[in-house]
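input
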Amino acid sequence: MSQITILLLYLLAAVAFAMSRLPRFGEWVQASVIAAFAFGAAGVVTHGVYLNTEIYTDSGLILSISSTMSLVGLQLALIALLGAIVPTLRGMTAGLLLLAALITIPFGTQAAAAVSSDLTWQIEAHILISIFSYGLLAVGAIVAVYALIQDKRLRSGRLASGNHLFAPLETTEKLLFGVASAGFVGLLLSVVSGFAFIENLFAQHLAHKTALSLLALLMFGTLVAGRQFAGWRGKRAVYLYLMGFITLCLAYFGSRFILEEILGRSWS
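output
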């Protein structure tokens, strides 16, 4: 029941934020914004309470695919509400909340998902940094898709009312590279802490997860360096970002799906 409530609150907030950016609902802008923040805040609080009871148990942390994605969804919703403080970003906020709503829907099993309660603080920090970094980069993926859609609409001359859902393209690109830089730092810390605190990382059954994570790190590092030193922008930079994000998805969720749904094991 809690998941349905979270889903509905996020959907209502997304619709209200989108309405606040569309000219046809101009007379309802203030009411839409107030309702959007109210629904969004209620969704975040409900989501946080739900995850606190689902993830932290007497037997340890529950980090199945579903619970991890839900945790990322909470992070997306929080970032969305912070971004909504800027009026031009409220259309993008609607997209982030829509994604947060979708990934709260449970799927898969909880089998072999409990992580030992004897984890050291270093391993717990590694796990939290990894999830935080993935959440940041997921936000960037949504921003990248927005940038592609906006660029296509501008090139085709499709200047419809729906363009009000998009921030200016330059603002979108700056946001994308800001998220990419923060996500790269987080991912770097995640990889470094993994090598520092997890013994025989390549000898475990998730050596391919490590390899894909390193490849994603290289892609994001190349993107950040290209932006900083060569002024990269446009489709080339956006496509490289999306390739890095897809690689990271395969590294984490692809491995988790094979282990939990097919092999019935936990990565830890």
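quick obs: Helices lie at 2-21, 29-55, 65-83, 90-102, 121-156, 169-197, 207-230, 234-262.
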